[in-house]
């Protein structure tokens, strides 16, 4: 009995698309997908082509399974766009359930690939999304703690300075005033 990979390779060789498949799989790996993820994405794309396209031209589904598109998605769709990993994941999370998303509305080529992955492997996408969100939430909590510590420290310093100033004023009022003047000069505190 043949595995999915063996069956796909045979069909692709018969259709003359095996080298195109390998190029696409390599491209997906270079975009950051694991070899298994790249295999699954490329296999899904090319299986779809084999099932729907009689001519061997790339037949790419619109996001969400809408109609088909005869022209491949090109870098022109993403010209001048720049996005980060977190922003790409957020965009995909916001758009994965929509059927009318196009490459032109996408923040980057990476987000488009991630959207395609999320549509074909939703469970894996959501698991990774939740990991990313939980890490961000944890980092936000740590930063919040630092801010609270800084506020406390600032308040503690202000209280210490006030106590110090008060003790200088009290000591100065008990003596002849000369001691206060000397202490004020040493600490840089004004007598006013």
Description:
67% of the residues lie in helices and 2% in strands. The chain has 192 residues and is mostly helical. Among the domains are: 1-58, no CATH class; 143-187. Strands 1-2 form a two-stranded antiparallel sheet. Helix 1 (4-15) packs across helix 3 (35-52), helix 2 (18-30) packs antiparallel against helix 3 (35-52) and helix 5 packs across helix 6. The protein starts with a helix and ends in a 5-residue tail after the last helix.
Taken as a percent bin, the fraction of beta residues is under 5%
Rounded Rg = 32 Å
Give the ordered list of helices and strands.
Answer: HHHEEHHHH
- Strands of the widest sheet, in order across it, are 1-2
Q: In terms of structural class, how would the helical and strand content be classed?
A: mainly alpha
**Average of per-residue pLDDT values:** 74
Given the structure, what is the number of helices? 7
Largest sheet: 2 strands, antiparallel
| Shape summary | rod-shaped
Oligomer: single chain
Proportion of residues in helical segments: 55-70%
- Terminal CA distance reads 95 Å
Number of strands: 2
**Contiguous runs where pLDDT drops below 50 for at least 5 residues:** 53-70
Give a brief description:
The protein contains seven helices and two strands. The chain is an all-alpha fold and 192 residues long. It has a two-stranded antiparallel ribbon.
């Amino acid at each position: 009995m043949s595995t999915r990979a063996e069956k796909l390779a045979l069909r692709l060789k018969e259709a003359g698309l095996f080298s195109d498949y390998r190029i696409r799989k390599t491209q997906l790996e270079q975009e950051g997908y694991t070899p298994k993820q790249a295999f699954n994405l490329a296999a899904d794309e090319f299986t779809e082509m084999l099932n729907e396209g009689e001519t061997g031209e790339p037949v790419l589904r619109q996001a969400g399974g809408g109609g088909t598109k005869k022209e491949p998605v090109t870098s022109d769709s993403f010209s001048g766009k720049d996005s980060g990993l977190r922003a790409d994941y957020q965009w995909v999370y916001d758009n994965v359930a929509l059927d009318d998303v196009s490459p032109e509305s996408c923040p980057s080529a990476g987000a488009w690939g991630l959207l395609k992955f999320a549509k074909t492997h939703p469970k894996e996408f959501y698991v990774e999304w939740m990991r990313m969100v939980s890490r961000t939430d944890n980092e936000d909590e740590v930063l919040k703690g630092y801010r609270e510590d800084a506020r406390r420290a600032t308040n503690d310093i202000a209280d210490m300075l006030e106590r110090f100033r008060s003790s200088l004023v009290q000591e100065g009022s008990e003596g002849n005033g000369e001691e206060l003047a000397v202490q004020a000069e040493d600490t840089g505190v004004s007598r006013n």
